[in-house]
Specification:
alpha/beta, about 15% strand, eight-stranded mixed sheet
């Protein structure tokens, strides 16, 4: 199928969705008015369905609704127009297994302890994840795609299971067969069609896309349907891809996994264009699945009571700082998209954009709150519904980042803190210690590392101490009492 044909299918589906949304508008208005009058979400006996969509390695700006004028994501953009978009969503650890554990548990990495690919949740830990708590509350639960936490798959802990260990393969039936993203869309519809009457559902879909196919020299294996997409555009190369931005890093980072992967994805202008276009194609294919799911929900009437969360497990360098992959604390690595669509929210929330700093650990308590459940004490994240409803009082002004997996020495561990203006992080394994500090207000692309600036020595010292305070607080917390972020000084 040509890219033009694909675009026609998407546009047709997009128009069909608009029809369903228009037909249902009066019903939505009634629900929104009722929720506003009551001053809360709908009662527990009218709990919503939940559709949780997670992409892999998708940075925040790889969506049309986030300002990208090249990528085609009409269905996700439409979701943003109807939902609440969080423009400063971050992961507290930028690697798949740890970030997914953060998402499931609502905890920082130091709390849940998942720092490698082999370690699974304990039975007690899993019982406090959002899917387990929703199933215990009567939800029909399903999981599709990359699980990512440990090697043992929790098949028996879901009512429907189509998950897989490891990275999976984009063409599990051979390259003449269906692409994995399309297969996952088929599985999702199979789940939705089999939900028992009278049951609410929670379906978590964990896409492989747009992650590369490791060990395959082609890396970003999109389907044949999108092969011609983006062929007539030139992707701008980021300014920080210049070698001068890479040369500032110490030897431990010059020979890191980030640089090795950069060489096979972005080392030449031709390779850069091919890689980024294929990365975009994989995201467009996810967008097509989102459109299929929304069309099904609209056609069956389930959209009137289905909350949709769309986000990613971590960001992705597209040659910024001379890197590929993720792991470090630059914006490209840690910042991801987040859209929360809830048809029960007031009309004023539709299309709202929130700039407060939100985190992957906020997702579990938010999903539970959507279902009318109280997040358990061990969850350290915060419910996002106050922001959805336009009430940002007492929101966080700082958060902690850590990355402890070193991949046999190929990834230097790092840790840091980020406020709305300042970012500080360091690499404890480097000798001498390598630090980075950026004034994000003046330098949003992180081009000027101020760590050796005499004028910023006091700021660096202050932020360095904040990292120590966060570590001490996390290490001392045992989960028996409600988590409280360390007291934040004015930064």
């Amino acid at each position: 199928m040509s890219a033009t044909a694909l675009q026609k299918i998407d546009v047709g589906l997009f128009t069909q969705l608009e029809y369903y949304e228009t037909v249902m508008l009066s019903r939505r208005n009634f629900l929104s008015a009722a929720a506003a009058a009551a001053g809360r979400l709908s009662a527990q006996n009218d709990r919503p369905n939940i559709l949780f969509l997670l992409t892999d390695d998708q940075r925040w700006d790889a969506l049309g609704c986030m300002g990208n004028r090249i990528i085609q994501t009409p269905h996700i953009d439409r979701l943003s127009e109807r939902g609440v978009t969080f423009t400063n969503q971050f992961v507290t650890t930028s690697i798949c297994m740890t970030s997914r554990a953060c998402i499931f548990t609502g905890q920082y990495a130091r709390a849940h302890g998942i720092h490698d690919f082999a370690k699974p949740f304990t039975e007690e830990q899993f019982s406090r994840t959002y899917p387990a708590l929703l199933r215990a509350a009567g939800y029909h639960t399903g999981f599709i795609g990359k699980y990512g936490v440990g090697n043992a798959m929790p098949e028996s802990k879901f009512d429907y299971w189509a998950g897989f260990p490891g990275q999976g393969h984009y063409f599990p039936q051979g390259e003449n067969g269906k692409h994995l993203t399309e297969i996952m869309g088929d599985q999702a519809l199979q789940f939705l069609n089999a939900v028992p009457d009278g049951k609410r559902f929670c379906l978590s879909i964990s896409f492989k896309a747009p992650h590369v196919q490791d060990q395959d020299p082609r890396q970003f294996l999109h389907s044949r349907a999108t092969a011609d997409l983006y062929s007539d555009v030139t992707i701008p190369v980021p300014r920080t891809a210049s070698p001068k931005y890479t040369e500032i890093f110490p030897p431990e980072m010059q020979r890191s996994e980030n640089r090795r992967r950069w060489a096979v994805r972005f080392a030449t202008p031709q390779l850069y264009q091919a890689s980024v276009k294929s990365y975009y194609r994989l995201i467009t294919e996810v967008d097509t699945v989102v459109g299929r799911l929304r069309e099904h929900l609209a056609r069956t009437g389930a959209d009137r009571n289905t909350v949709i969360v769309f986000t990613a497990d971590n960001g992705f360098y597209l040659s910024e700082h001379g890197f590929a992959g993720k792991w470090f604390m630059h914006e490209e690595s840690i910042r991801v998209p987040l859209i929360v669509y809830d048809p029960r929210l007031p009309n004023a929330s539709a299309g709202a954009r929130r700039t407060q700093m939100t985190l992957n650990i906020d997702l579990a308590p938010t999903v539970l709150t959507a279902a009318g459940l109280t997040p358990p004490v061990p969850m350290q994240g915060r419910n996002l519904y106050p922001l959805c409803e336009g009430n940002p009082k007492n929101w966080r002004s700082e958060w902690f980042y850590e990355h402890l997996f070193n991949n046999n020495g190929w990834i230097p561990p790092s840790e840091g803190v980020r406020s709305e203006r300042w970012k500080y992080f360091r690499y404890p394994g480097t000798t001498p210690l390598f630090e980075e500090i950026y004034d994000l207000q003046a330098d949003p692309r992180e081009e000027r590392n101020l760590a050796k600036s005499p004028q910023h020595a006091a700021q660096l010292d202050k932020l360095s101490k904040r990292v120590g305070i966060w570590r001490q607080s996390l290490d001392a917390w045992n989960g028996a009492t409600a988590w409280r972020d360390p007291a934040v000084e004015s930064i």
